[in-house]
Amino acid sequence: MLIQKLTKKFGRVTAVDEVDLNTTTPQMIGIIGPSGAGKSTFLRMINRLTPATSGKILVDDRDILKLEGAEKRAWQRDCAMIFQQFNLVPRLDVITNVMLGRLNRHSNLKSIFSIFSKKEINQAFNALSRLGIAEQALKRADNLSGGQQQRVAIARALTQEPKMILADEPIASLDPMSAQVVMQALREINERDGLPVICNLHTLDTARSYCDRVVGMRQGKVVFDGPPTELSRDVVRDIYGAEQEIDESMTSTSLESASMHHSTSYQNHGFATA
Ligand SMILES: Nc1ncnc2c1ncn2[C@@H]1O[C@H](COP(=O)(O)OP(=O)(O)OP(=O)(O)O)[C@@H](O)[C@H]1O
Ligand SMILES: [Mg+2]
To answer: Looking at the domain 24-37+69-262, which fold is it?
Structure first.
């Protein structure tokens, strides 16, 4: 994927400002940066949830930003999105939530229960086992812990058979232990399936531990792009702002920030397989 001068303006605010990004091998890329840097907007432009103002996203010589109709939907199916708030259907059981990842492969939606083949049901169970939560399959999604729900969302993404995974702050609502499990799952998918993963993270230590490549954004611009080993103190200060002295723990997953986010966990029930 070759991203050239990707830009998004909201009125007078330039949320993403001429961002270039070139990926060749299926890397695990972490995008970091302060709140408002444009991380979410950047990811949402890649899978066409947010229309770009200008720029190009070239994949196999096609400009993704120009795709319409069925071709656009096919692209959206190819890049599975993972959200901070999981976006499961809370009252449905886990296995059905996972099979919803198949929905956009069916042209006619008649009944959820009659359209899935045995193969698809097996596929959904396999995805759950792979994520270590097969025994939760028949529980209602809203009876699971946050970490388990995010693993269900990842299983749903896998049944979509994507070519890429985009994750927007996948661990921001999770406790540190669950956060580790979820990051390990994404890393394992990246390595074993060879799927590129682009992951917005608000914690520096997570980017350091799990990513091959870190992209630092500030005010819509990429101010760093390199391996985690090159994230020196100066670079970090450049990303998060020179005004404040950055302490690594400040940008790391803390129990306090996890519980702060947790209270909002169930508010967003929007279901998106995009
Ligand atoms: N729908 C919108 N309408 C207007 N402005 C928007 C919209 N979405 C984002 N913005 C603005 O674009 C900028 C980038 O926002 P974005 O959500 O991409 O940042 P972010 O890096 O994901 O931040 P955070 O870490 O808080 O999630 C911000 O100034 C934000 O206020
Ligand atoms: Mg964001």
So the answer is: Rossmann fold (3.40.50)
